[in-house]
Recover the amino acids of this structure.
């Protein structure tokens, strides 16, 4: 099961690594400088409190040398936070608050994610006065702790608790997407950021077999890396130079053979994996393909806005592959209109046959999920689509869509500027537009989002 993630942030020497070790209960969990293994963060699991969570020590983040120290620290903190659900911002109560602390805090205040402010090195009574100074950072009540001696850790766990448990519920209902900014994209598109792949599906579909197969093939290419797969939570592969992280594999690999209740599967466990994934591979047993439960999971993936690839596993047991594939395609087309054209890979995790097709399909789906439609091309297409099939009447008047623009990717999200409020455009019409976008801009198999805005095109220049 994927765990909620907490990132430890702060400038050097405030005691991040010490706190990290305290939380995970041992020395550093992962070999961080095995040659050839690119590590961009140090992760471990904290099992001290009532909840388990994953901890990232951003002291392990290496940033480009070109930036100023302050810029590098800020970026490191933001990257750590981006990978986490909650940030622990650590300051050193003994040395006091520095400009670097303030700069990081300024940036953190602008983020949506919850941040807990920790004044570290507060063992005994020592630095209580300094803790007050941390108030000035504008991040709420500072929590005095000592990573080295363990003071304040129970309070820290108690303070974290409310931020960790309701995660899956929160993510299921994403807030309106904020407008894209250049920096969002820059971070999202950094080539060294791994593509996060979740492998999900019903019990016995063959998920564990597939993960083991992927890992085994990788081993053959790169040789065993002791420590890499044993200790780390995320499993890394590379395909065509692109790092791919398999999320949520710990549970799959050493899974207790307890069958999850089907209804539960579609909610908590699956939602948790989705939350951390960019692309989701839905593993389906080809001998009983696409039952209701599979379709429910697929719809959940679409609702969550992730890119989907369907894996038809156990293809070795299929006698008439052509007929079987045609049946699956029909069913996908009729049942999964929301992600029309979803890629479908038939393979056998058992024999390994065609497993090599999976990662190419996954990276292609990822590229489509990340794609951006240029505004001019989008509006040219829109004009034709509107002409072919005009929007319906609302209270006897024609709804006009004046302009469209893509605001974000991951998944592709479009704003339509209309002369009527959003309700005037029915779902069916938006589905028609989505289908057109898919055909024209190669957005197969990825969810498409629309926001309808009532009013003039704000970008019009005259
Ligand atoms: P990082 O650079 O933020 O990861 O900081 P480290 O964990 O490497 O710690 C920096 C220094 O602060 C080390 O010398 C630690 O021994 C010391 N340190 C860390 N936590 C505490 C603490 O709670 N109390 C005291 N007195 N020193 C600490
Ligand atoms: P999980 O519950 O989804 O992780 O499924 P497992 O990987 O544990 O597989 C369930 C069963 O299906 C095991 O008995 C596997 O050996 C079998 N299995 C998995 N993949 C294949 C396959 O490609 N072909 C065949 N014939 N059996 C498979």
């Amino acid at each position: 099961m994927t765990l909620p993630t907490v990132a430890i942030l702060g400038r050097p020497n405030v005691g991040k690594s010490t706190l990290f070790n305290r939380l995970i209960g041992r020395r550093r969990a992962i070999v961080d400088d095995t040659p050839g293994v690119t590590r961009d963060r140090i992760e471990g699991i904290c099992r001290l409190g009532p909840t388990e969570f994953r901890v990232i020590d951003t002291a392990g983040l290496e940033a480009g040398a070109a930036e100023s120290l302050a810029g590098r620290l800020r970026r490191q903190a933001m990257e750590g936070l981006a990978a986490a659900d909650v940030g622990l911002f650590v300051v050193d109560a003994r040395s006091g608050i520095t400009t670097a602390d303030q700069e990081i805090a300024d940036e953190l205040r602008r983020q949506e994610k919850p941040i807990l402010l920790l004044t570290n090195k507060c063992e005994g009574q020592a630095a209580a006065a300094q803790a007050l100074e941390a108030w000035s950072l504008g991040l709420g009540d500072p929590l005095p702790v000592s990573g080295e001696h363990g003071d304040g850790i129970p309070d820290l766990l108690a303070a974290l608790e409310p931020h960790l448990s309701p995660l899956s519920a929160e993510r299921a209902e994403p807030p309106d997407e904020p407008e894209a900014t250049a920096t969002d994209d820059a971070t999202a598109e950094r080539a060294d950021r791994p593509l996060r792949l979740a492998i999900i599906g019903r019990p016995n579909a063959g998920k564990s077999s597939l993960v083991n197969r992927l890992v085994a093939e990788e081993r053959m290419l790169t040789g065993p890396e002791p420590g890499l797969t044993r200790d780390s939570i995320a499993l890394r592969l590379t395909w065509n130079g692109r790092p791919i992280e398999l999320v949520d594999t710990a549970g799959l690999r050493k899974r207790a053979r307890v069958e999850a209740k089907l209804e539960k599967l579609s909610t908590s466990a699956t939602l948790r994996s989705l939350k951390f994934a960019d692309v989701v591979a839905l593993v389906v047993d080809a001998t009983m393909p696409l039952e209701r439960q599979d379709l429910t999971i697929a719809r959940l993936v679409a609702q969550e806005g992730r890119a989907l690839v369907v894996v038809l596993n156990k293809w070795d047991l299929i006698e008439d592959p052509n007929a079987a594939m045609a049946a699956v395609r029909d069913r996908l087309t009729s049942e999964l209109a929301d992600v029309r054209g979803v890629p479908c890979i038939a393979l056998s995790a058992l024999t390994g046959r065609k497993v090599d097709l999976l990662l190419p399909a996954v990276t292609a789906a990822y590229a489509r999920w990340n794609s951006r439609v240029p505004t001019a091309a989008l509006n040219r297409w829109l004009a034709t689509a509107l002409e072919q099939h005009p929007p319906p009447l609302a209270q006897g008047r024609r709804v006009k869509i004046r302009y469209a623009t893509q605001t974000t990717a991951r998944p592709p999200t479009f704003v339509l500027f209309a002369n009527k409020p959003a309700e005037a455009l029915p779902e069916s019409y938006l589905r028609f537009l989505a289908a057109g976008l898919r055909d024209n801009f190669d957005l197969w198999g990825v969810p498409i989002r629309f926001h309808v805005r009532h009013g003039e095109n704000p970008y019009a220049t005259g």
